[in-house]
Specification:
Elements (H helix, E strand, L loop, with lengths): L3 H9 L5 E2 L13 H14 L5 E8 L11 H11 L1 E9 L2 E8 L5 H16 L7 E6 L4 H9 L2 E2 L1
Parallel strand pairs: 4-5, 5-6
Antiparallel strand pairs: 1-2, 2-3, 3-4
Length: 153
């Protein structure tokens, strides 16, 4: 069962689904086909690694359209302009922010740091999450940066 921390995130943040435990799906919410393939391969090899997962977790304030009064349009505009975490996972009571990349570059590092910052801004009571890049390949420079920034890969 998900911890209180993961349940709170599930209740307070926009997301697609909470799987306890993670399961392989035909299609994963909001993931591109290449990212889905990476995640599916990870789950095939490590189905028991995470205790629970959420997909497409929206973080940040998003943008409110100017001169708009329709509450539904405002909610939609905010939702589509918020940042989106590919997978928010939990392992042994710790939250993991997971970014999936077919062909990673240094932008994956910026995304993970931004998601962590926004998640903690929205809920400062969350323990500092572990950052994780699940990727098809790396290079020596990325691995150096991953180690320096304490990003699992």
């Amino acid at each position: 069962m998900a911890s209180n921390q993961m349940q709170r995130i599930s209740n307070e943040f926009t997301h697609i689904r909470l799987d306890e435990p993670p399961v392989r799906l035909h299609k994963y919410p909001h993931l591109s086909p290449s990212d889905s393939a990476i995640w599916d391969r990870f789950l095939t090899n490590h189905i028991d690694y995470f205790d629970s997962v959420m997909y497409d977790v929206h973080v940040g304030e998003g943008q409110v359209p100017e001169n708009e009064d329709d509450a539904a349009i405002i909610r939609m505009a905010i939702a589509i302009t918020q940042r989106r975490i590919d997978v928010l996972a939990e392992r042994q009571g710790r939250i993991w922010i997971v970014e999936l990349k077919q062909d990673p570059g240094v932008t994956v590092i910026g995304q993970l740091i931004a998601y962590k910052t926004l998640l903690l801004h929205q809920d400062p009571t969350i323990k500092i999450p572990i950052l994780c890049a699940i990727v098809n390949r790396t290079d020596p420079d990325l691995e150096t940066i991953f180690r320096a920034q304490q990003i699992a890969w």
